[in-house]
Design a protein that fits this description.
Strand content: 5-15%
Largest sheet: 7 strands, parallel
CATH superfamily: 1, 4-beta cellobiohydrolase
Shape: globular
Distance between the termini: 35 Å
Radius of gyration: 20 Å
Number of strands: 9
Number of helices: 11
CATH topology: TIM Barrel
Low-confidence stretches: 1-70
Helix content: 25-40%
CATH class: Alpha Beta
CATH architecture: Alpha-Beta Barrel
Oligomer: single chain
Strand order of the largest sheet: 3-4-5-6-7-8-9
Length: 417
């Protein structure tokens, strides 16, 4: 039998995902248990996608041609915008993990055909796997390697995505104490082992979601030094792009208005000089428009202070109905806003639903962004990335089927082409 060319093998691997999903979306995976997250934010105007996205969404999810076969755009290599030719997320497939590291996996495997078809709107889109201190130092290397091998499906040029949530203590606990010497040593070991697991595989890293908690730590020097170590270690890998969490358009520090200078202060302390750039909106709901505008101000701030040309990514997993943190309603009285109520009908306000699908072409017209924002996105944004996890309880654990089904039914972006 004649050998099958690698390009054909790659295409067959993609078709194995696309065909069973019929008209649904392709690509990825995610997640493990991690502590719940909570944050307080200052208000700013909610940045949403204009109403014209409804008319544009079918064009947005129209299939592209790959080797003569139609594929949804986020499951085919996308060229970089001319304004951002060095984009490391462009010109490559974004990986698809299907296995038990995804909290959705077991629910999907036991679901009926109708539920599976609905869940594919989430399951087969590229998503970011979160890793944290719930994995021991000796576990992270093999776990990361397994995730990469699975998501690459035999194509070593495919991009894998991870969020590093390893700092201990973090979030509100970080406001009361610093890492002990033992915890500091463990952190460095864990990061080195993660780096060994990644190796030369193309990888996107979101560094320490909920970055604004850095401002409340009792000893910012110690915590910042550890985060710089992680950023530098992972950025030194040959094909890894690190994006440090900078908060969101409505949150750079608890109790203060979000400003470019304050968000950039997090980045300067945690290694932005080594990183590709930064990440916006990991756990908030403000949407692409406001995050692109503030993120571009951060880019300008960093450039003016000698940090060069930095770029950023924006989470769009949960911004189908952009909402400021202070305006968001929790799912029930007494719940945290991390567990925001889901949109149960199209057009519902102050709720969460799925946003723009993952793409390395954030400035394209089909996303319905205002013209000035689309231009900023084409120049400064490497991608709309699904590193948020609104289908999980408190955006953490476990997977909640009803949340997922509500968002699948109400997202403005359901089609796969």
């Amino acid at each position: 039998m004649l050998p099958i060319p690698f390009a054909v093998q790659q295409l067959l691997a993609v078709l194995a995902i696309v065909i069973p999903s019929a008209i649904l979306t392709p690509a990825a995976a995610l997640t493990d248990s991690l502590p719940g997250v909570a944050a307080t934010a200052s208000p700013s105007p909610a940045g949403g996608v204009p109403a014209k996205q409804q008319a544009a969404k079918k064009r947005a999810t129209a299939p592209v041609q790959a080797a003569g076969v139609s594929l949804p755009p986020w499951q085919a290599p996308q060229p970089a915008h001319p304004q951002n030719p060095t984009n490391p997320l462009a010109n490559r497939l974004w990986g698809v993990y299907h296995g038990p590291q995804d909290q959705l996996y077991n629910v999907y495997e036991s679901a009926n055909a109708q539920t599976r078809a609905a869940l594919d709107t989430i399951r087969v889109r590229p998503r970011t796997k979160w890793y944290g201190n719930f994995l021991a130092d000796h576990e992270i290397q093999s776990r990361a390697k397994d995730y990469i091998v699975n998501s690459q499906a035999g194509n070593p040029t495919t991009l894998s995505q991870m969020a590093v949530f390893r700092m201990k203590p973090w979030e509100h606990d970080a406001c009361t104490r610093v890492p002990t010497p033992v915890e500091q040593a463990s952190y460095k070991t864990w990061i080195r082992n993660l780096a060994a697991g990644i190796g030369d595989s193309p990888t996107l890293i979101v560094m320490q979601p909920d970055g604004p908690f850095l401002w409340c730590v009792p000893d910012i020097k110690t915590t910042s030094k550890l985060l710089r170590f992680a950023t530098k270690t992972l950025s030194n890998l040959p094909n890894t792009s690190v994006y440090i969490d900078a908060g969101a358009a409505d949150w750079c520090e608890n109790g203060r208005r979000a400003t470019a200078a304050r968000c950039a202060g997090i980045l300067k302390r945690t290694g932005i000089k080594w990183a590709r750039g930064f990440a916006m909106d990991s756990t908030h709901y403000t949407g692409p428009v406001d995050n692109i505008r503030l993120g571009s101000q951060i880019v300008n701030h960093l450039r003016a202070r000698g940090y060069g040309e930095k770029h950023f990514i924006v989470d769009t997993a949960k911004s189908g109905q952009p909402t400021n943190w202070l305006d968001m309603k929790p799912s029930a009285p007494g719940e945290l806003k991390d567990n925001a109520r889901t949109c149960s009908r199209p057009g519902m306000k102050r709720c969460v639903t799925l946003g723009i699908p993952p793409t390395a072409r954030p400035g394209d017209p089909q996303w319905g962004l205002p013209a000035d924002v689309a231009e900023l996105a084409a120049r400064n944004v490497d991608g709309f990335v699904w590193f948020g996890r609104p289908w999980l309880y408190n955006q953490a654990d476990p997977f909640v089927l009803q949340r997922a089904m509500d968002m699948v039914r109400t997202t403005p972006w359901p089609e796969a082409g």
